[in-house]
Structures are given as C-alpha cells and as structure tokens.
C-alpha cells in the first residue's frame, strides 16, 4: 500500500503558549487521507476546522504532534521548502477566490507557475489548458471584476490545478455563491475527483455539501467526533 497523502498523528495547536490566556484549539487530532479520496471536514464555527486546514495546507505549524504530507515530515522542513510544498503540492481554493484584481483570468491561473522554471510561453499554454478544463477559456482576457462569482471560483480552481498538486484544499468554496452556482462548482470538484483521481479535502460547515463527498470527518471543539462514509 502506498503512503497516505496526509497522515496526522496527535496534532495539538495552542495559541499564546505558556501565557495565562493560553488556548488549545486542536486536542490531539489523528487523521489519514489516502490518494484519491474526496473528504469533507465539517464543523460549526469555532470547531477548529480553519486551524486544522491551515496546518494541512502548511500555512501554519502545529504545537505538537506529527504531520506527514506524501510521506514527508512537514515538521522538519525549512520555511523555504514549506513554501515550495504549498506552491507545488497543494492547490488552494478559498471562499473569497483570492484572485489578483488587476490580472486577467489567464494571468491569475499562471500565478503558481511564476515561481518555477517554466517558460512564459509554456506557462500560458498550461494556464489556457486549465481554463479550458473548467470551461472558462473564452473569459481568459477578463479581469475578476468582469466575472460572476461562479466564474471567479472556476478560475480559482484552474489556478489550484495548474501544478498538478497532490491535494486540492477547498475552504468553504461555495460560501460566497448562490445555491445553483455552488452546485456547479461542486460538480467540477466531482469531475476532478472522478476523472483525474484527485485527492480533495473540502472544509465546510454545510452538512448538505459534506454529504456529497466520499467521507465526512466531523470536528467539534477541536476533536474529531465522527468519521464516516458519505453519499457518493
């Protein structure tokens, strides 16, 4: 059996460590996600899911415990290596899209490639390929303020996919969208999962969205209180 994409052991996250107002947000999280799984992490506001997402996404460090991403010990990585891992191995999709306002769709999708060695011509070709995949090639020259919410999120998904990441980490990806558009975005995630075998971790407070995924991990007060198969 291959090494899981994500393996977390006894993850603790504490803020204000050693101070009188010390606050432990995550209390010994054990989580394994295998290649090709579509997992949702669901919980109410304050359950610790954003804190957990930041650790999974190598945006923050845990206070204690071990985290292995594709078999590599994230704890032992330098800041430079962590930055490279975030850029190349994790595709982020955020609730508020995080697109550059002055750049058109094509340039927004190219952003993760700008830190690598790829030639500009090849970057453009790859970015256009990704826009085609999400049905946005005809809007390549449009800036974010000329796109609808659903179109912005499709551009963000194309950007997340451009480096062929090990995991797509989606934080409330339909939170800023109406219900119909939200379903279209979820359909796109299902396509990436079903057709390309992508490992997807969806962070959401919505039980309805979570029920569309293969597996639902429920967080409550910084602990995993449920881990079961979803509908698909």
Summarize the helix and strand pattern as letters.
Answer: EEEHEEHEHHHEHEHEE
CATH architecture: 3-Layer(aba) Sandwich
Rounded to the nearest angstrom, the radius of gyration is: 18 Å
The gross shape turns out to be globular
Q: Which band does the percent of strand residues land in?
A: 25-35%
Number of domains: 1
| CATH topology group | Rossmann fold
Report the top-level CATH class. Alpha Beta
Number of helices: 7
Number of strand elements:
10
Q: How far apart are the termini?
A: 23 Å
List the strand order in the largest sheet: 6-7-8-3-9-10
Could you give a short account of the major beta sheet? 6 strands, mixed
CATH-level-4 superfamily name: P-loop containing nucleotide triphosphate hydrolases
Mean pLDDT: 93
Main structural class: alpha/beta
In terms of quaternary structure, what is this?
single chain
The helix content, as a percent range, equals 25-40%
Low-confidence stretches: none
Please explain how this structure is put together.
The chain is of the alpha/beta class. The protein has a single domain, classed as P-loop containing nucleotide triphosphate hydrolases (Rossmann fold, 3-Layer(aba) Sandwich), CATH 3.40.50. Helices cover 32% and strands 27% of the residues. The protein is built from seven helices and ten strands. It has helices at residues 49-56, 79-89, 105-110, 120-133, 149-161, 179-196, 207-210, and strands at residues 6-15, 23-33, 38-42, 64-69, 72-73, 90-94, 167-171, 199-204, 215-220, 223-229. The strands form two sheets. The protein has a six-stranded mixed β-sheet with strand order 6-7-8-3-9-10, with helices on both faces. Strands 2-1-4-5 form a four-stranded antiparallel β-sheet, with helices on one face. Helix 5 (149-161) runs parallel beside helix 6 (179-196). The longest helix is centred in the last third of the chain and has 18 residues, at 179-196. The mean pLDDT is 93.
């Amino acid at each position: 059996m291959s090494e899981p994409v994500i393996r977390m052991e006894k993850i603790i996250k504490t803020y204000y460590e050693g101070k009188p107002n010390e606050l432990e947000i995550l209390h010994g999280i054990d989580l394994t996600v295998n290649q090709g799984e579509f997992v949702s992490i669901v919980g109410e506001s304050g359950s610790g899911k954003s804190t957990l997402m930041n650790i999974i996404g190598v945006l923050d460090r845990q206070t204690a415990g071990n985290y292995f991403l594709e078999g590599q010990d994230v704890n032992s990585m330098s800041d430079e290596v962590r930055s490279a891992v975030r850029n190349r191995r994790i595709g982020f999709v955020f609730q508020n899209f995080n697109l550059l306002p002055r750049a058109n769709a094509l340039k927004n999708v190219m952003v993760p490639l700008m830190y690598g060695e790829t030639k500009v011509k090849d970057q453009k070709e790859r970015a256009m390929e990704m826009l085609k995949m999400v049905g946005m090639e005809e809007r390549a020259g449009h800036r974010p303020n000329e796109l609808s919410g659903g179109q912005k999120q499709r551009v963000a998904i194309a950007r997340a996919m451009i480096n062929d990441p090990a995991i797509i980490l989606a934080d409330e990806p339909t939170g800023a969208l109406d219900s119909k558009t939200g379903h279209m975005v979820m359909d796109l995630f299902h396509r990436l999962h079903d057709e390309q075998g992508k490992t997807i971790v969806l962070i959401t407070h919505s039980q309805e969205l979570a029920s569309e995924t293969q597996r639902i991990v429920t967080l409550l007060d910084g602990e995993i209180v449920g881990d079961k198969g979803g509908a698909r």
